[in-house]
Fold this protein.
Amino acid sequence: MAATHQHQQHQRRMLLSPEHIASLPPEQQVAYMQGMTPEEKSLVHQAQQNKRVGANRRFMRESIRKYAYCPVAGGSGITAAYTAGSTLVFDLPVVPGFATDLLITYNLSVTPAAGTNALYVANAAAPYNIFSEIDLLYNGPQVRTHPYVFKLLDQLRGWLTGAQNRVLAGNNDSNVAAQLVGSTPVLTNVANTWQGKLRLRLNALGEETVPGLLPVMGVGNKPQLKLTCAPNFVGVDPLLSPISGSSGSGFGATVTGNINVDMFFLDGSNTDEVDGYKLDMNGEPTLQYYWDTPLNPLNANLLQRQHINTLLEHYYVFSLVIDGNQSTSFATISNLTEFELTPDSVGQQKFMSFNVANNISVYDYYNSIRSICGQDLDEGVVVWIAAPNRGIINPANRTGRQVLNMRPGHFPAASHGYMVNSVGSVAGITPRVETFLISLNRDGLRVA
């Protein structure tokens, strides 16, 4: 009887493919899989995984993109007043879906003081450095970065794609551009208008990717966005202060205005099915932004190294070389003697290296940047890793991702090194290298 029962069980299992079993309701799956061999169960589990991935891809691809405003924390309306050095806190709204992007709108009036024949210039990171730091909390920090990173992500999205949706070719309506793209006029003793939008992409690997999305349906954590207004709006640091004096004396500025934040989200609504699509985040990794340990101080005529201290899978690694010689750029190309990325702590091996000694020009690196995004990035910016850009859509790119994997068993001692000719000719700027990461965390999103 036992043998007959086992034979019947085997015949019953063979009637349905792993894909069919994966499509059954959970309680029927459990009943059907009783007595299966480990190999058969493995096939079913793989089919379940494939089904989940396919359903998630359809959710991301076909859901209608929706908007909702983010209220100021504490129920103080939807607009926060900009004040130098203050931290503005916004709650993400409760809606039945998943947040994909946050759109920060700023509308400021910047009045540089007359002083004594005072004239001003916009620093290298303006207008992104109206905030010195941006944090997004979801059961701990999900994002900690500088908003200048948003500019790099915009520029790396494809050929002739400008920062803040700037139109580089084709029709460019000035009225639209004035609202979306931030300009930074600095006329002395004039109320200059700075307005525009900054986009924080939560799923920065691509529009159809799930890692980085945040559930906002009111279950679990309540996400909060914290915007730290620049403590010194007038200062010489190219990353931390928006404007600086170029001549004269008595520098200062009065800055007033408002900040508001909108959230883009997907809830499965689509133009095909009445019931909508579902997203299953079980087993999905998450994507996080990190401000890694800086190389500080940066010295002249010395190759200095800094480890990447966040040990995850890095899909973007950006470094800003701040040589301290000017505020209007991070570092001039002519001052960059050498920079390299290595899989070890001493530079014995090299992923990439640009320097005079091995006769590979620094300009060869900037030529490679043009091949990635069809435009030049700001001087002093080094993009070490841009894995999502190595796709097949643009045939000028090489195919196949290049992720810097620093998880156990891979490259936990990866480091980056720099040499510059001179540093620190402008008092008040700390010569250093700031590094920013956008990384996949396979532990997934921690939902309390």
About this structure: The longest helix spans residues 38-62. The CA atoms of residues 340 and 353 lie 4 Å apart. The mean pLDDT is 89.
